[in-house]
Amino acid sequence: MRTSITFKLFLALLATSIVVALAMGGAVRYSFDSGFDDYIQEREHQRLDDLAQALAVDYAEAGGWGFLQSDHNRWWRTLRLARREVQGSPAADPRLPPFRVMLVDVDQHWLAGPRLRPGADWRRYPVKVADRTVGWLVSPPLVPTVINDEIDREFQSRQLRATWIIVGLSVLLAALVGLWLARALLGPVKRIAEATHRLASGDYATRVQIGSRDELGRLALDFNRLAHSLGRNERLRREWMADVSHELRTPLAVLRGEIEALQDGLRPLDVAALASLAHEVRQLSDLIDDLYELSLADAGALNYHMQPLDLSRVVSQAVDAVRERFVRQGLTITTELEDGLVIQGDERRLSQLLSNVLENSLRYTDAPGRVRIRACRAGPGLMLEIADSAPGVGPDQLPRLFDRLYRAEPSRSRAHGGAGLGLSICRHIAQAHGAHIRALASDLGGVAIRLEWPVFAPDEE
Q1: Which pLDDT tens digit goes with each residue over 276-321?
Q2: Which end of the chain is more exposed for a tag (fewer CB within 10 A), N or C?
Q3: Going edge to edge, which strands form the sheet with 369-378?
Q4: Is the full-model pTM beyond 0.70?
């Protein structure tokens, strides 16, 4: 039978509480016994001291020990005055234990009390008058474990019972508190476990209520973030499949229409028809190549050959490759490149990134227009920015430009070509080079794609 974690935690808390309670009970019992023995010893010492003082007063008044011989009851009266709690002679009340203390003179001759044969370990307490010892009180050693007083024994018994009653009540209270703690502490864990089962079943709308700011609260917060990410990824996956299907369907539909028109004789098989077919095949091939390259980037399988590069030189080569096309399109392209921008990078991949961004500017910038490229130091880091003129996109659309197959409508529609994968590939290339890429509103009226390296450490070599 499977045992729940709540029951396990309850047993752990209960076992710990029992051990602690028993240890405390034993410690209290030991402390009481030790303290009670000290108390008995101190009380006996005080009684002998009181008895010695009373006998000293009687000795001083009588001028010697003769009063004990003339009045045999004087000894017991003195004991009562000394608070020995004896209500008469030991023989008068057989329930009381014998009072074993003997009075001897300075020559060790017996004067009063039971006739005992003192041993070497017996206690001797002096009776002094005017700083002169006139006698001795002799008593056998007090055994700590043997309590002769009925009241003392009753007190000790009550304390023992009270100790174990307290231990029992402590264990019961610990069991109740442990049960409450187990349920209170593991309640959030149980809710997270149940929510995890629902999430694993595909219910991405599952959320867990955050009831605290401790580790369990942070766990619930992370769970909610995970559920949100999984739901978003599932939505993006479905959109991705729909968009890819649409992107593949469009050129295929055009090809099929062109071929059917040729087969039916509705269109002559001439150079223009072949050029149209070649254009659609080229678009389909470019789309498949982009999809393949993006899949490699997602899997981290894009190859990078990192080496020291002059970033300004790479930008200049990329601009020279497209400058004539920009001029034919009625666009002016300018560069502001700082010298000495040597970074670690892959020249082929960086050229691909620049080509994708410049291709977007060429497609979507209205003529006459302008494109500006800047590369410079920015604080401790490095910045590369490609900005174009109108038209721009809305602020809410800027972060989505790097999403796969996304186009901002209406200015950046499919009529301008492209599958909407170029900037997604650029993001992977930028991340591989340790740069952060983002889209901003350009001061020229269009869109600015900015790459930022947080730390610029040029290679001295």
Answers
A1: 788 778 777 767 776 777 677 666 656 778 899 899 999 999 898 8
A2: N
A3: 331-337, 369-378, 381-389, 445-453, 436-441
A4: no
State the Cα–Cα distance between residues 192 and 425, nearest whole angstrom. 37
29-88 pLDDT tens trace:
777 766 666 777 777 777 778 888 888 888 888 888 877 777 767 777 776 666 544 333
d(CA 419, CA 125): 113
* Residue among 312, 308, 305, 336 nearest 458 (CA): 308
Which residues lie across from 132 on neighbouring strands? Answer: 129
Residues 6+ apart with CB under 8 A from 217: 188, 210, 211
Distances (CA, A) of 419 to 247, 285, 394, 399: 7, 11, 20, 18
Q: According to the 3-state scheme, what is the secondary structure of the chain?
A: CCCCHHHHHHHHHHHHHHHHHHHHHHHHHHHHHHHHHHHHHHHHHHHHHHHHHHHHHHHHHHCCCHHHHHCCCHHHHHHHHCCCCCCCCHHHCCCCCCCCCEEEECCCCEEECCCCCCCCCCEEEEEEECCEEEEEEEECCCCCCCCCCHHHHHHHHHHHHHHHHHHHHHHHHHHHHHHHHHHHHHHHHHHHHHHHHHHHCCCCCCCCCCCCCCHHHHHHHHHHHHHHHHHHHHHHHHHHHHHHHHHHHHHHHHHHHHHHHHHCCCCCCCHHHHHHHHHHHHHHHHHHHHHHHHHHHHCCCCCCCCEEEEHHHHHHHHHHHHHHHHHHHCEEEEEEECCCCEEEECHHHHHHHHHHHHHHHHHHCCCCEEEEEEEEEECCEEEEEEEEECCCCCCCCHHHHHCCCCCCCCCCCHHHCCCCCHHHHHHHHHHHCCCEEEEEECCCEEEEEEEEECCCCCCCC
Q: What is the mean pLDDT of residues 189-213?
A: 82
Q: Is the pLDDT of residue 458 over 70?
A: no
Q: In angstroms, rounded to a whole number, what is the distance separating the alpha carbons of residues 175 and 12?
A: 10
pLDDT-based confidence at residue 26 (cuts at 50, 70, 90): confident
What the block records as the tokens of 164 is: 């174990």
Q: Looking up tokens 């899949």, which residue turns up?
A: 295
In the chain the domains, ranked by start, together with CATH numbers, are: 1-201 (no CATH), 215-298 (1.10.287.130), 307-453 (3.30.565.10)
Each residue of 227-238: pLDDT tens digit?
888 888 888 777
